[in-house]
Amino acid sequence: MKKKVSIGERSFTFFNNTFLILLALICIVPFLNIIATSFASTQEVVAKKFILFPTTFSLDAYRYILSTPTIFRALAVSIGVTGVGTIVSMCATSLMAYGLSRKYLFGRGFVNFLVVFSMLFSGGMIPTFLVVRSLGLVNSYWAMILPVAVNAMNMIIMRNFFQALPDSLEESAKMDGCTDFGVFFKIMLPLALPSIATISLFYAVTYWNTYMTAILYINDSSKWPIQILLRQIVIVSSGMQAESSAVDVIPPAQTVKMAVIVIATVPMLIAYPFVQKYFVKGALVGSVKG
Question: Which CATH number applies to 76-250: 1.10.3720.10, 3.40.50.720, 3.40.720.10, 3.90.550.10?
Answer without folding.
Answer: 1.10.3720.10
